[in-house]
Hints:
Blueprint: H1 2-9, E1 12-19, E2 27-35, E3 39-44, E4 49-55, E5 60-65, E6 71-76, E7 81-86, E8 91-97, E9 116-122, E10 127-133, E11 140-145, E12 148-154, E13 161-166, E14 174-181, E15 184-191, H2 231-266
Amino acid sequence: MLSRIVCVVALVVGLVVTPGSPAAAETSCTALIANASNTVSVIDATNNTVTTTITVGTNPSAVAVSPDGATAYITNFNDNTVSVIDTTTNTVTATIPVESGPEDVAFGPCATPEPEIEAEVTGDGRSVSVTGSGFPANTTIAVSLEDLTLGTATTDADGTFTGEFSVTDCDLTGGTLTATAGDSSATSDVTLTPCQVTTTTTTTADPTTTTTSATTTPSNPATPGELPVTGAAVLPLLATGVLLLASGGGLAAITARRRRSADDEQA
Length: 267
């Protein structure tokens, strides 16, 4: 057993491949080596140098790297544990107890979760709260209702997101809400409250023409063909009559004098 363990010390048991510089179109590789000193050495395979050393359990035996290259699993033979390493930070994030003497580790098929969303109408019935999961991590999600783009949201490291969106187009009273990120998408049906229509009537005077119309109804209306006679109207009529009488008397006196003058001349 000891000789087998010694042989493992120099065994390259895992590789993590990460993208290199896009400009140089290179690929960088990292090798993880399990050591009898209860550590894992991280080697930059492009220049064959040790970049860091990670402490794990007693007598690490084997390494397996997740399909996405983000996590490495190290079996610790004497500890009966498995160390979980985040390959981005090169730190142990968890230690898993297993049965006695773990040696080998391998990944089976990894199921990719299907994207899904839940939509809930909120507020005045024209807002939608959307929660999604199963999307790519740290990715922008475009949210739309039918052909109307509502906005965007960003997923977290677990591929989930939450967003609140308002629907201002009153022609839309519901439909299919879609969340999309590249090839990943999910839908949900929503029904909105119709917009509240408020009618306001404003009367504005014509600034160039002002027309005033008034109708007055007499207090003592006359019958057809008659003129209305009121107390106020009698006084002017009386005054007119007096003037006519006075004028008539004066004319009669003048006529009488003229007749006398004519008689005197004939005599």
